Structure prediction request, 300 residues.
Amino acid sequence: MVGSQLSPEAQSWLVRALLGAGAVGSFWYCFAEWHRNRVIRDTATSRVRSAAQGYVALSGRGLAPPGKPMTSPVSGRHCTWWHYSIQERRGRNSWATIETGTSETVFFLDDGSGRCLVDPRGAEVHARDDLWYGSSAYPLENPPRGLAKTLANVCAKSDFRYRERCLLAGEPLYALGSFRTEGGVAAGDAEREVAQVLRTWKHDQKTLLDRFDANHDGLLSGEEWERVRQAAHDQVAASVGARPVPVSINVLGKPADGRLFLLVAGDELSLARRLRSRAAASIVICFACCAALTWWLINL
Prediction:
């Protein structure tokens, strides 16, 4: 209808604009997907127990915190992360979103060597994706599977539709992000305490010599000074042992420098293959748009 109201010249410019936009958009999408693929392939997967502080990849299973099971608000399935939207039909092919939400609750990744707390805020999540229909604002049954799902979606005449993406509890999980350890007693902290003890002892030279000058020559030999340092270490160790031991927690979250933060249901190899396939399809579309645009410019 709109095309019949445009002049032939305007229609020609519209086609050129659409082909040009398709070429540029598909090229950008190809570059973005290939970049994600390269980041995944270039980042070796670490174990939680031995992971270095910084940008790492981890692979294990997603688990809800003990005593705090999580369920998705739409389907009620046990999961570690969810995103949902509920839409209402406003016309034959028109839908309006009436409710949406995304989980921001932390959960665990367990790879057998240890557990890491995952903060999903800001992550790009590749998860199970379900779309189904119903007659009420909230679904009365879980999403159908397989052929039943396809037939239900094709034949759907309902006034509401629901979309839900979930990382299910216990399923394989690949995570790429910023790894850090919080809490615990660092070796540097203990050494600083030893240095402080030694400085305090040096201020009272008489007491220091009375305790450690074994030959009473008024000086501390190298061997005697080693005994001083050992005594300082023993005092600090005893002091630390008498305190409540801080618990160290491994946390994976969004990198502060803007690098890719990924949470993927499955393994990295499957995701990398999907990303390469999308990149290849995008570059084919880009070349097709370029070829069509070139033909259009030459022949019309």
